[in-house]
């Protein structure tokens, strides 16, 4: 099995939810995850974020679904780390 272990994303987010609520929502759907959000830029209506997610197994479709449901837009996948885990 090819397991996604780490992703770094470029996300455009409205001011609400705030960065803490956004980070907690992402972490809530990925078991055992560590989520780091860095606000890169702020304008009148949005914030540009660098989002780093690390876990034993990241369900990227689920992660993207949560991002979309919070009114955010995934601009790019900037880094990915995967591991080939035989017999998983």
Automatic annotation (TrEMBL):
Coiled coil: none annotated. Gene3D superfamilies: MTH889-like domain (3.30.70.1340). This is DUF211 domain-containing protein. It holds the Pfam family DUF211. It comes from the Bacteria. PANTHER family: DUF211 DOMAIN-CONTAINING PROTEIN.
């Amino acid at each position: 099995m090819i397991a996604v272990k780490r992703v770094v994303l470029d996300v455009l987010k409205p001011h609400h939810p705030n960065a803490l609520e956004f980070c907690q929502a992402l972490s809530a759907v990925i078991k055992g995850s560590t989520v780091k959000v860095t606000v890169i830029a702020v304008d009148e209506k949005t914030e540009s974020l660098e989002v780093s997610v690390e876990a034993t197994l990241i369900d990227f479709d689920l992660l993207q679904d949560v991002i979309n449901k919070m009114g955010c837009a995934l601009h790019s996948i900037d880094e990915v780390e995967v591991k080939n885990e035989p017999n998983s």
